[in-house]
Amino acid sequence: MTTHKKRLMGAGAMLAAAAFALAGCSSGGSSKEATGAAEATTSDGQVVELTYMHRLQDAEGMTKVADIVSRWNKEHPNIQVKTVKFDGAAQDMIQKLETDVKAGNAACLAQVGYAEVPEVYTKGLLEDVTQYAEKYKDNFSEGEYNLMGVDGKIFGLPQDTGPLVYFYDTEAFKQLGIEVPTNAEELEAAAKKAAAQGKYILSFQADEAGNALTAQAAAAGDSWFTLDGDAWKVNTTGTGSTAVADVWQNLLDNKAVFTKPRWDASWSAAVADGSLIGTIGAAWEAPLIAGDGANSADAGKWAVAELPNWFGNADGATGPDGGSGVAVMKGCQYPAEAMEFNNWFNTQVDDLATQGLVTAASTSVPATPDSYGPFFAAGEDPMTVFSKASANMSSKFIFMPGWSSVTPVMTDKANAAIDGSAKVADVFSSAGDQAKTTLKDLGLQVAN
Greater confidence, 262 or 43? Predict the structure, then answer.
């Protein structure tokens, strides 16, 4: 799993100044489009050498990244890839990439979170590989593919995905005489019925507000950040966001929702003791929830469903919560070859699934890992559901540069909504206010 925890156009002059005319990340020759391993050599016949920096887990029992790449190297003798595992936090890796790009020795390929793409773009760290990406576009879900883009340009390919889905305890639902609600009215009724018995079919997670509520707004059809010429337009209180706020406000007013922080031990304990019997979560949370409830009475009776139409998100629409791609860094001498490997690596779905990834590749559905599949044995195969959800990811939601400054404000307001000193709608309006301030602080134009 990528570190989930735990596009944009800036003012033209500013971005031009941020761009770097750098030496490549590999030795010798000029770039040319790779048409096969036999042709992928430099102009003087040398082997093309690339470096891929990642922060995947590589934990025990997983297919190691280096082992996956070694298979590529055996099959592509003229394009050799070296892997480098970065063990620090995502932001620390960005700082290293910035230093390396400025020094002219950056890895050609690097793992970058979708929400981080605008930031590294404004810093001039990304190579425009749109012309190479086009031929691989159909191998990936549209929503995640677009998240690797800024201002109509593509800078890499998506790796994993975090579509919101619904996890629930089928046995507990049966005992309560309820089914998975299909709209907001049914949701409120079922949540109140469950709460009367000390059970909760949803959790309102203040510490995850910046990710979860944003993704729910995207599922409901909103796009918070758009470009108007050279300026950013911000709207965090559209129809979809308002619908999301209304649903959660009703549940909080009726004390029909679990409100402990997602990453607090009390949240995990509630799954284990059977009081939390349902939650909206990103697909990558499946093994975490399975671990929380491994010894519970209903282990094996949980299921996964596509996000129901609770926020006006018809046809299974969902939004992005986490996930990352592999970007081509500024100065890479061999972008065509880098993208050839990028496509190959990110379509090794079974190997990547062992790393805990829900892959963005649309080429095939990997087998659900045995580490958590049995916990969700009551419903459709989890990976199949995740694949459907990924295909239904909002394709128009994009992040803004400096996004990390917005999420703490949303968390603060979400906590206030829990204790009644604010409304859930304030979470969304405050997000918009902070977003505009951040964009202006970055020297970017704001249209509204």
Answer: 262
Taking alpha carbons only, the member of 188, 98, 207, 111 closest to residue 155 is: 111
Q: Are 436 and 443 in contact (CB under 8 A)?
A: no
pLDDT digits (tens, 9 = 90+) for 171-186: 999 999 999 999 999 9
What number of helices (H) and strands (E) belong to the chain? 17, 13
Phi, then psi, of 303 in degrees rounded to 5: -145, 165
Q: Are 245 and 217 in contact (CB under 8 A)?
A: no
Residue with tokens 């005992």: 175
* Residue 48 phi, psi dihedral angles, 5° rounding: -75, 130
List, in order, residues 6 or more apart from 95 with CB less than 8 Å away: none
Q: Are 338 and 332 in contact (CB under 8 A)?
A: yes
What's the angle, vertex CA 431, arms to CA 427 and CA 432, rounded to 5? Answer: 125
pTM: predicted TM-score of the whole model, two decimal places: 0.85
Least confident residue range of 39-53, 87-101, 270-284, 355-369: 39-53
Contact 139, 343 (CB under 8 A): yes
Inter-residue contact 32 to 251 (CB < 8 Å) = no
Task: Give the span between the Cα atoms of 302 and 294, in whole angstroms.
Answer: 11
